[in-house]
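Researcher: I'd like a structural prediction for the single chain below. Treat it as a standalone chain; there are no partners to consider.
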Amino acid sequence: MKIQIFAGFFQTVAEVALALTPLLLFFILFQIFFLKLPREKFLNLLKGTLLAFFGLVFFLQGVNMVFFPVGEIIGFTIASLHDNWLLIPIGFLMGFTATFAEPTVRILNLEVDKVTSGSVPQKVMLYTLSIGVAVSTALAMLRVLTGWHLYYFLVPGYLLALVLFRYSSPAFIAIAFDAGAVSTGPMTVTFILAIAVGAASVLEGRNPLIDGFGLVSLVFMTPILTVLILGVLFNRKKEAEL
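Model: Treating it as a single chain, here is the predicted structure.
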């Protein structure tokens, strides 16, 4: 497989510039009329915006050039094996490691740790979300192998979430839905989705458009469940201490 690292680089630059320009304009307008930050701090924020711009450009370029094609090749290769059930444990491992490296997950964990004054440590949240996404990825690979409808996973999952609402605290319910959102970040979606599409493209009777997609909905659901379960455990711990 020959990968041209800078193929389409300027298109990526244009896309990121188009996405960041409105935010930058809003910030400048707020600076002029409302914020009125000191000149030095304003310039530092502009430098940070520039760093974010280049970071997004290089990250998205890497995703397009490496993550997508490598993910598809992994899915295609494993699904072609006689023991293609290996997709399930490998999917679990990939989901765990991708979430462990997800930048948006790290930000959520930091904020939760800060707001709760360390009562919900970063490591606990990190492992909770990583396990949740790992389970969802394994379920997605099971779905690709069996061809089962997405409803068989989503309906019981969200019904379970409604039951857990009763036993979890309002704080954990709020954190749970944010956890579902941040877990569907660029690292997880790009790599894991590519594996599912690659696997669906080689399996007989599977349609990559139908069976390869739907992963994001599972990735959104399972961290909600794992955080709610964590909330139930924390509530029981508090009750035992009283």
